[in-house]
């Protein structure tokens, strides 16, 4: 579910079920040619589809962090902290082109990227992503 689909009059009713925030990171530099930007955003969209479609009733997709910065880890972690402070239990960062590590993002529960999942530029098998997301939910249930 996209953030723009959540209405104020239904949020409190939906909130217990929509406990996971999907935070897309494009990581653009501004140096890309228009066709490169298009390709990067299409790759990110394809990655997001692997989460949004099977987990529609539990995941809310927030706006994409479009451009990278020198302190991108700090910036993403701050957003994740704030999102959790607003009521989400889990934050999943998803990217196709940026290599991000959970160890630098303590407020992020899971980082999904092409490099971390498959080590290549190919889209991962959807079951790999589904298993990773279910693993963070199960880990939380065991606490």
Feature tags:
single chain; alpha/beta; 143 residues; five-stranded parallel β-sheet
Notes on the structure:
With 143 residues, the protein is α/β, with parallel strands linked by helices. Helix content is 42%, strand content 17%. It has five helices and five strands. Strands 1, 2, 3, 4 and 5 form a five-stranded parallel beta sheet that branches. The longest helix is centred in the first third of the chain and has 19 residues, at 34-52.
Give the topology, please.
Blueprint lengths: L7 H7 L5 E9 L5 H19 L6 E3 L3 E3 L4 H14 L4 E6 L14 E4 H4 L8 H16 L2
Radius of gyration: 15 Å
By helix and strand content, what is the structural category? alpha/beta
Q: Helix count?
A: 5
Overall pLDDT metric:
87
Largest sheet composition: 5 strands, parallel
N-to-C SSE string, H for helix and E for strand:
HEHEEHEEHH
Number of strands: 5
Uncertain stretches of 5 or more adjacent residues = none
Helical percentage: 40-55%
Percent of sequence in beta strands: 15-25%
Note the overall shape. Answer: globular
Terminal CA distance:
27 Å
Summary of the model, kept short:
By secondary structure, the chain is of the alpha/beta class. Helices cover 42% and strands 17% of the residues. The chain contains five helices and five strands.
């Amino acid at each position: 579910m996209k953030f723009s689909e959540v209405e104020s009059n239904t949020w409190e009713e939906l909130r217990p079920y929509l406990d996971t925030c999907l935070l897309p990171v494009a990581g653009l530099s501004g140096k890309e040619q228009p066709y490169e930007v298009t390709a990067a955003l299409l790759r990110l969209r394809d990655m997001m589809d692997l989460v949004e479609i099977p987990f529609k009733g539990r995941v809310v997709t927030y706006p994409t962090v479009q451009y990278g910065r020198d302190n991108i880890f700090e910036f993403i972690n701050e957003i994740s902290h704030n999102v959790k402070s607003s009521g989400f239990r889990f934050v999943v960062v998803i990217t196709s082109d940026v290599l991000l590590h959970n160890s630098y993002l303590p407020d992020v529960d899971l980082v999904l990227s092409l490099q971390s999942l498959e080590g290549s530029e190919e889209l991962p098998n959807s079951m790999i992503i589904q298993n990773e997301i279910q693993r963070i939910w199960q880990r939380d249930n065991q606490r």
